[in-house]
Amino acid sequence: MPAGKAKRIMPNIFKITSDPVVDFAAEELKKYLRMMMPRSGEYVISYCPGAKEGFRLGVFPDFGLSTEEVEDAELDDVLHVDTDLTGGIIAGSNPRSVLLSVYQYLRLNGCRWLFPGLDGEFIPIRDVQPTKYHKKPDMRYRAQCNEGAETQQSMLDTIDFTPKIGMNTYMLEFDIPFVYYNRYYAHRSNPEREPEPVSTDTVLQWKRVTEAEMAKRGLRLFDMGHGWTAESFGISSVVGWDKQSEDTIPEHMRQYLAEYQGKRQLYHGVALNTQICMSNPEARALVVRHVVEYAKQSENVHCLKIGLADASKNHCECEACRRMRPSDWLLLLLNEAEEALDKEGLHPVLGFSIYSDTTWEPEQITLKHPDRFLGAFCPISRKYTMDVPTDPHPNKITPYVRNVSGRLDTMEEYLWHYQQWKQRVPARFIVYEYHFWKAQYYSPDCLTFAKRLHDDVIAYHKNGFLGIMEDMSQRHFFPNALAFSIYAETMYDLGLDLDQAIDDYFSHAYGDAKEIVKQFFTDLSKLLPQAFLDTAHSLPVDVHQFRKPEMIPLFEEAIRRSDRFDEDMKPFRNMPYRVQTVAVRLLGHYTDYLRGFLHALIIKAGGDDEGAKQEFLAFSRRFGARERDIEPYYDHCLTVLALNVIFNSKEEQEM
Ligand SMILES: [Zn+2]
User: What is the DSSP string of 346-381?
Assistant: First the structure.
C-alpha cells in the first residue's frame, strides 16, 4: 500500500485534559497527520476524558502517570508518547509539554522544522509508526529574546517555531519594543527601501498579539528588562539607544537621576542608559510603584525582569550611593519590589541580571526570599572563540571601582564572579547569551558556530545554570538555522551527538546536495576563520586584528571556492521539498554575500581602513536591495551593525 493511503484505523483525537494549550496541541496533531497521510480521511477532535482508543492527549495525572521525576511539574517539561497503529497516549507533565510531545511524536515519525515559517517545514508523506518515547529535557528554560530588526511576521514565525524545536520560553524586551520594530519598518540602515513607519500604538498592539500566540502554546513569557529607570520617572525610553533632549526629563524628576561627573542628567543623552540615585528611597519607591502598576496588568507574565539602565560605568557618584556596590543597591530595590508586589497579592517570578557593573557581586545585601527570583548571568563582552570554563581560574580579578571597572574580557573572570554571586545569593540562575546577536556574523561557516553552541550549552549546564536565553534577531537564519537548532537540541538533550545532528539537519535541508554543502562550509571554516573575525561585544576593537596581509590569499581562495560551489549547486536549484528549494536558493544569496564581504575584507587585511569601509558601504547598500526577497532569514540592519564593528574600526576609535 503506498504511503499516505493506510486504511482508516485511527480516526479520532481525544482530549483527556480540558485546557486551551491541549486544544491547540490536538489541532496541530490533526494538521500534521493530515499532511503526512493526505488520503487517510478526517480526524475528529473531541473532549472525552474517558476515551480508551484513538489518540489521547493530556497531562500526566489524567493518565495516572507520575510527575515524581521533576521538582515542579509546571516549570519542568516531561514528554511521554506511547502509541501503536491505532493511536495511543501523547502526554506531558503540563499542557505545554503535551504540545512538545505532539511535535516530538511527529519528529520521530519523520517531520522536521528547519526554519521558522511555512517554508521551513519538512513534512513527508508517510504512515505514522508505533512510537514509544519518554524524556525530561535537560534544561528547564530553553529560550530566546527579541533583538535586531523585528518584523511582526518574524515574531509570529519564531514563536510558532519555539515549541516545534523543543524550546519553551520567550522574552519580550521593553514595555513597548518600538526600537526593534522601528529598526525594520523605518529601514534606517537600508537606504534601498522606502520607510514604512509604524506607531508605538501599533507596536503595543502587536506585542499583545505575540503574547496571545505564546499563551496558545503555553510558552513562558519573560517581560521587560531595561526601561524601569527611565519610565518610572516619566521619561520615555521608547527610542531605545538613540540620544534624546534633556527636555524630556520632567524637572521635578531630575533629583532622582544618577549624579554623573557632577550632574544629574541623561547619560550621554540616552534615557535607557541613565541610572538613578539608588540610595534615594523616593527614587526606589517610584520604581517600585511603577513595577506594581505594570505587574497588575501583566498577570500573563511568568518572569518580570527588573533591570537597571543599560551601558556600563554610569552609576550614581553621590556620596550615599558610593557606600554600596551597584549589586547591593539592586538587591535592595528587588527586595522592596517583592514586598510591594506581595502586598498586592502579585507573585510573578522577578528577574534580575548579573550584567555590566552588577557583574561584581553584592557585599552587603542579599535577597530576602530568593525563591521568588531568577537571576540571569550576562557575559555581554565575551568572545566566541573562548570556551566556557567549568572550573574558572582567572589570571586576574579586576577590582570593582565605581565607574572605572567596566565590562570584562574573559569568561574565566565572568564565571568567577558568578560563583561569588551564588555564594551570597541563593537564587536560581539562567544564562542570558549573545551568540545570535553579533557573534554569529563572525563565524560564517555554520559548522564552527554549531559546535560553539553545542559546547557552550553543555558547559553552562555543568556550571549549574537552569537554562539559557539568547538575545537575538528573529531573522538570523542566514544561510540556515543549523546553529540555532543545535542550540535548541542540546538544551533539550545534553547527550546530543553533534555530528549526527548536523548530518540530520543537512540531510533534510539539502537532500542529495548535503555532502557538497557540508564540504563547502568545512572549506570555508579554514579560508574565512572565526578566529580572524571574532570581536568582543561592547569593548574597544583591536584594529590590528584585521590588518593581516597574510590572510589575503585565503580570502581570494574563499571567493573562488564560492564560485565553484555555485556551479556545483546548479543541478539542485529545484528540489523535491519546498523547504529544500528555499534552503538551496538561500545558499546562492549567501555566496553573493560572502563575495561582497570578502572583497571588503581583502582591502581591510591589506591595511587600507578607509578603502575597506567604502567597499563595505557599497556592498551593503547593494545587498540591502535584496532584503525583501530573503527577509525571513536575513536581518540587514543587524548584519550591518555587526560588520560595521570590523569596517569602521580605526586606530583611534573605540566601538
Ligand atoms: Zn546617588
Answer: --PEEEEEEEGGGGSPPSS---S-GGGEEEEEE-TT
pLDDT at 7: 53
Q: Collect all residues with Cβ–Cβ distance below 8 Å to 395 and sequence separation of at least 6.
A: 410, 412
**What average pLDDT does this structure show over 180-184?**
97
Cell numbers at 78, concatenated: 516531561
CA gap 342, 334 in Å, rounded? 12
Match 528587588 to its residue by C-alpha cell: 334
pLDDT digits (tens, 9 = 90+) for 30-63: 999 999 999 989 999 999 999 999 999 999 999 9
CB 295 within 8 A of CB 304: yes
The neighbouring-strand residues paired with 102 are none
Question: What cell was used for 153?
Answer: 511576521
Using the mean position of ligand 1's atoms as its centre, give its distance from the Cα of residue 359 in Å. 19
pLDDT for 539 beyond 90: no
Q: Average pLDDT of 159-180?
A: 98
Q: How far is the CA of 338 from the centre of ligand 1 (A)?
A: 22
Ligand 1 center–CA 497 separation, angstroms = 52
Instruction: Please give the Cα distance from 119 to 515 (Å, whole number).
Output: 22
Distance CA 277, CA 535 (A): 33
Give the pLDDT confidence score for residue 545 in this predicted structure.
Answer: 87
Enclosing H/E stretch for 13? strand 12-15
Q: For a pLDDT cut of 70, what percent of the chain falls above it?
A: 97
Residues contacting 261, CB < 8 A, separation 6+:
317
Indicate whether 653 pLDDT > 50: no
Q: Name every residue whose Cβ is closer than 8 Å to that of residue 457 and which is 6 or more positions away in sequence.
A: 139, 468, 487, 490, 491, 494
224: left (phi over 0), alpha (psi -120 to 50) or beta: left
CA 326 – ligand 1 centroid, Å: 10
Residues 125, 4 contacting (CB under 8 angstroms) = yes
CA of 260 to the centre of ligand 1 (A): 9
